[in-house]
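Minutes, project check-in
Item: structure for the 94-residue chain
Input as provided by the requester:
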Amino acid sequence: MIEQDLAPWRGVGRRLARMREIAGLSQAEAAAVMETDAEQVAAWESGVERLELDAAIRMAARTTATLDYLYLDDVSTLPTPLAKAVAAAEAKRR
């Protein structure tokens, strides 16, 4: 696969990891929520593989994230407390 083909999934993976961290979940715990294994979560978070919709729905339900946020980076669709936590996490990263 060509490197640039994975570029959109890197952002999805970063947002998935951010939601997992904000929820206080390890990759293994997130894997249980998403009904997969930790290796698959790591592949999604690194952008090596596309995040499966069913898994994204399960994680969104657990974290109150939205699919618009996970896939499209639309922070405006997040509940206010979660949007604030995302902003704080991004500020720490900078």
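Outcome recorded: The helical segments are 7-22, 27-34, 38-46, 53-63, 67-72, 80-93.
No further action items on this chain.
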